[in-house]
Amino acid sequence: MNRREFLGKLLPKQNSSLGNSRVSKPESFDSENSPTEEQKLQINTATCLAWNDVVCSSCADVCHARAIEFLGLFRPVINEKCDNCNECISSCFKGAINVC
């Protein structure tokens, strides 16, 4: 059983009348200050839901490069596949992904 199947059984079904809407970027997100190739994205473990034992994979779900890996069910880390697309930043409910 993969992560999506497992989460699908735990989480309630989404209302299909909501359509296929995307999550908007947090107000604090500034596209002019997006990371360059030298800069890296980092997950703040103090504010990340998954690092605090809450089932959440919103960052990994939007990552087309599959650059976010989970150590078990929790504890996501950003690996070297990250291409700085910033989709994970805008998808994080807690704003736990930062440019460092």
UniProtKB/TrEMBL annotation:
Coiled coil: none annotated. It comes from the Bacteria. Residues 13-37 are annotated as: Disordered. InterPro entries: 4Fe4S_Fe-S-bd. Residues 13-23 have a biased composition (Polar residues). Residues 74-100 form the 4Fe-4S ferredoxin-type domain. This is 4Fe-4S ferredoxin-type domain-containing protein.
